[in-house]
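Open question from group meeting: does this chain pack into something compact, or does most of it stay loose? Before anyone orders reagents, we agreed to write out a predicted structure and look at it together. Recording both the input and the output here so the notebook holds the full record.
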Amino acid sequence: MARYGKPVRIFRRGVRRFRILDNVGFGINEIKLSGSEKGAASLTSYIGGIEVSAPIYLADMSFGALAGVPNIVEAELADELMLISGTGEGGLHPEVARHRRIFVQWASARFGVDINTLMAGMGVVIKIGQGAKPGIGGHLPGSKVTQVISQVRRIPVGVDALSPAPHHDIYSIEDLKQRIDALKEATGKPVFVKVAATNYVPYIVTGIARMGADGIIIDGHGAGTGATPLVVRDNIGIPIELAIASADKMLREEGLRDRVTLIAAGRVSTADDAAKLLALGADAVSLGTALLISMGCAMARTCHRGNCPAGITSKIADESVIVDHDFALRSSRNFLVAFMEELRLILDHLGIDDVRKLVGRRDLLKGRCIDEVTARVLGIKDVECETGNDQLAVQGSVWTPDYSIYATQLVRTGDVVIVSMGSTGPPEVEPPKRLIDWLRFDGAQVTKPAIDPYREDIDVSTTLARGRLWLSMPVIIKPPRTWNDALIRAAKFIARANSVMIDLEGLDIVDEKHLVRVMWDRYVDGLGVLVVTHFGVSKPDLDVPTYIRVSSAGEISDLVSALLRSNDWVNGIILGVNDDYPETHLVRLDVELRRRGVRDDFDIIIDMPSVRSSGDIVKLIALGADAVIISDFVERAMHGYTGIEDFRLRLMRFLTGIRREIAQLLGAAGIYSLQSIIGNRELLRALSGRVGDMLTVKLAGEDVLYR
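C-alpha cells returned:
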C-alpha cells in the first residue's frame, strides 16, 4: 500500500488466532482487489468538532522519540489530507509548529510547553497514560537527548527525560476538570484526554466525559512507543477492542455518548481493524506504528537506543541515519490514501453510505470462536465456531528470543529492562504457553494516581511464617542441578545479602554457612525453612518455619483439612504441581483457605518452573501466592558467567533488577505495598472468558461492579 497507494484487500481474515479483534468480522469472505477500485461512501467525520476527511487521527509521537523528519511528515500529511496529527510530549518541533492541523500534547513533564505551544495547533491533548506503558510517564533515554532535543524540551543534554508517573496537579477527577477548563479558557480550543486501556476504563472514560472533555483517546495494550519497561509493556493494559466496546456501552447508558469523540488507538493497522473498531463504538482510529512502517520502519525494535536502521527513531546526530523526507512523505501518503480507499470499499459492501453510520453498529459484527462472556462485552450476538478452537496454551518453551534477551539484560544492568515498540507478548502475538499469559495487571489512571518508583518508596517485601520470616521481595531462588558446590556457596551468600530465600531441597550442601536464608529438607540448626514432603511426618524438634511440598494434584483435595490438623507446626504449602495449569491449583487453594477463615495462618509458595519474568511473579502473587520459587528464570539469566566473581555479580544484579521491576509494576498500578496485592484478583483481567472462570478473574472490559 505504501509503495503503490492502492487498496489491496478488504474483509481480511485475521491471522492472530488468539487476538480477539482478529476473531471478529462482518461475515463477508476476504475480497482481493485489483487496486483500481474506487469506493463511493463518504468518510467525512468530526474529531472534537473539527471536520476531517476520514476518521483517522495520526498518533501522538514525540520529537526525540522520532528523529524529526517523521514528525514533520506526519504534520504535513494532516494538512494535506485534512486529518489531525498529534505532536506527542516532546515539545514542539519548529517545522511541525508551522502546520495547522495538529493537537499539542499536555503531558506530566510539560516538556517545552508554554502558551505559545498550546496556541500552535487546533486542539490540546492531556496525556494521562498510553497503551505501551500505563501508569508511568514518558521515557526518552539520555543517549537520545542531543542539543536540538535539549533546546526543544528545555532539559539538559545527555540526561534521561523521565516524565513523572502522575500529573502532579491531577490527583482526582475534579483536578482533571480544572485542567480541562483552564486549557479551554486559555486557548479556546477543544481539549482531549488520552488514557491507557486499563481495568476500569469504562468508568474512567465516563468520568472524563462528565468533566467536559471534547474527546477521549483510549490507547490499547500493545501500542507502540519509543521506550518503556518490558515488565510494564507486556503485563499492564487491555486490548483496545474490549476497552472501546465497554467504554462506548457505558457512555451510552449514562447518556454521555454524544458529548465526546472516542478515538481507538493501539495495534490498528488495517482498514478492517478500523471498520471493526468503529462498529464497536469508536468515532475514529489512531494510526501510529502502521504509519511508521509505511515510512520504512523495519521493526528492528531499537527505538530506545537511537540506532534505527531505517532512520525513523535515530538519535539526531551528524553520523546517524535519517529517513529521507521525500520518501517518507510519498510512502506514508500512499498508505493513507490506500487505507481510506479500503475503508470506503468496506462501507460500500456493507451498504453504508456514510462512515458515521457505522459507529456502534455491533449488529453487523460476527464472532468466530469467542466465548460467551467476551461476546457479551463486545455486544456481539452472532457467534460461530466451526473448529471448536478451545486451546488455551500451546506447547513449547516459554523462552522466546525476546525473553532470552530480557533475562540477559537483567543480569547485565541490575535495573529495569527498557525496550521499545509494541508488545510481542502473548496471547495476541506470541502464542500463550501458560494461563498467566492471558492475564493483565491493572494500571493507574486519573482517579488512582500512579506512584513513581524513581521518586517514591514502594514496599515490595513480604512476610512469611506468621511474621517469622521477612523477605525483601516475594522471590525464592532455586539453583539448577548443574551448579557446583562453589556456586551454591556463593548463591547462599547472595541470597542472605539480598534477604531472599534459596531453595536447596534435595541438594547436598558442603558447608552450613548462611543457613538462615536456606530452605532445605535436612534437620539442622540455624536453618531458615524446613521442607517436608508429606503430612505423615511427625512434628520436627527444630523450632523452625516448616512447609509441606505438594507435587501431585491429587493431594490438594484433602490439603486444607490436613493443614488445619497441623496448624501448630506447619506454616504453609509449597505448591509444586507442574501439570498443564498449575495456576488453577494456586487459586483453588487460596480461595479455600479464605473460605475457612485461615488464609493469614498459612502461606502459599508456588514453585512454577515456567516463570520467566518479574511480571509473572506479580501476577502469581495477585492470584494468591505469598512467594514464588524461580528456577528456569535463574538458570537462563545466569548463563554465561566467566568465574565465581562474575557469578556473584550477575546474581546480585539479577535480584536487584527483579526487585526494581516489581516496584515499577506496582507503581504503575498505583500500589505502595506488595502485601496489598496477595490474592487480590480484582487487580487482574483475563483476555478469555474461559481463563477468567478458571482463575476467578473478570474478563477485560467486563462490568467491574457486578458479575
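Observations to bring back to the group:
The chain is about 30% helix and 15% strand.
Residues 325-350 form the longest helix (26 residues).
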